[in-house]
Amino acid sequence: MEQSSGAIVRSYAKINLFLDVIKKRSDGYHEILSLFQNISLYDRLIITKIDRGLEIKSNVDIENNILYKTWDIFCSKFKEPEFGLRITLEKNIPMQAGLGGGSSNAAALLFYLSDQMGIHKKQILNIASEIGSDVPFFLFGGTAIVKGKGEIIEPLDPLTGYKVNIITSNGISTKKAYQSLNPTLFGKAPCSPYILYEAYKNRNITEIKRCTYNIFEKIVTKANKEISQNLKKLKKTSLISALTGSGSAVYGISFKEGEFKFIPRGIEYEKVKL
């Protein structure tokens, strides 16, 4: 992208087609094994340059907006830009839903800053996980196996041809959800995310149903009847229904009907001029 006074950036949501926790790490984080997929639900960041600092306006009140943390870490690791930014954030991705909205927003800002300042993607990836565990994925986007605490990304050929419906309920704290995990639940998935990925590629519905897995469903559905009901509702009209992340959003996947679809990217400049 050419140097300009601003840009409009789309930051897309994700769903977890598969999510298992392998162990709790010595650094306090959890070791995950997951299959991430971007979908066409997105937030928009309308970015214009100002003299200094960072100003954020949003259609949703967000306490401790991750964009401030992203700006601060970027400036401390590289250098503060010779310009400031005013960001108008149009939130469409529900918060505390397991759809990665905050991480996606952070990646969008990193993407823009790296583009404007000529910083290589590898350098940006090195700081992305300091901002949030899911942020590195969105810099790759599309379809990927995600490991470690979220910083190990194995990009895969994008999955296409699937539609997605989503139902959300009251937000769930990711931190509290992980704290509630019992180690006896770790590593109990019925198959690997690689097998599930191949099932999606081959349109193997039997294997998709067998391998779809989210460790948090064992906890969340017991504590939240609304989420359990939403899963059952989507199951009636979908190939499968599942929780994404630690919730509260649930999704249903089908071949033909759905408000959203699988897409091959996490971040995208809109083709408009400000």
Task: Say what the CATH topology of the largest domain is.
Answer: Ribosomal Protein S5, domain 2
The helix-and-strand class reads alpha+beta
Any idea how many domains?
2
Report the top-level CATH class of the largest domain.
Answer: Alpha Beta
**What is the string of SSEs from the N terminus onward?**
EEEHEHHHEEEHHHEHHEEEE
Helix content: 25-40%
Indicate the topology.
Blueprint: E1 6-24, E2 30-50, E3 54-58, H1 66-77, E4 84-90, H2 101-117, H3 121-131, H4 135-140, E5 143-148, E6 152-156, E7 163-167, H5 174-179, H6 193-201, H7 205-211, E8 213-214, H8 217-223, H9 225-235, E9 240-243, E10 250-254, E11 260-261, E12 267-269
Parallel strand pairs: 1-8, 3-4
Antiparallel strand pairs: 1-2, 1-12, 2-4, 2-5, 5-6, 7-10, 7-11, 9-10
Helix pairs in contact: 1-2, 1-3, 2-3, 6-7, 8-9
Which structural traits does this protein have?
four-stranded antiparallel beta sheet, Alpha-Beta Plaits, kinase, 274 residues, GHMP_kinase_C_sf, eight-stranded mixed beta sheet, Ribosomal Protein S5, domain 2, 9 helices, alpha+beta, transferase, EC 2.7.1.148
Structure characterization notes:
It is an enzyme of class 2 (transferase). Pathway: Isoprenoid biosynthesis; isopentenyl diphosphate biosynthesis via DXP pathway; isopentenyl diphosphate from 1-deoxy-D-xylulose 5-phosphate: step 3/6. Pfam families: GHMP_kinases_N (PF00288). Belongs to the GHMP kinase family. IspE subfamily. The protein folds into two domains: 6-157 and 262-269, Ribosomal Protein S5, domain 2, CATH 3.30.230.10; 163-261, 2-Layer Sandwich (Alpha-Beta Plaits). It is an alpha+beta fold and 274 residues long. The strands form two sheets. Strands 1, 2, 3, 4, 5, 6, 8 and 12 form an eight-stranded mixed beta sheet that branches. Strands 9-10-7-11 form a four-stranded antiparallel beta sheet, with helices on one face. The chain has helices spanning 66-77, 101-117, 121-131, 135-140, 174-179, 193-201, 205-211, 217-223, 225-235, and strands spanning 6-24, 30-50, 54-58, 84-90, 143-148, 152-156, 163-167, 213-214, 240-243, 250-254, 260-261, 267-269. The model has no long low-confidence stretch (mean pLDDT 92).
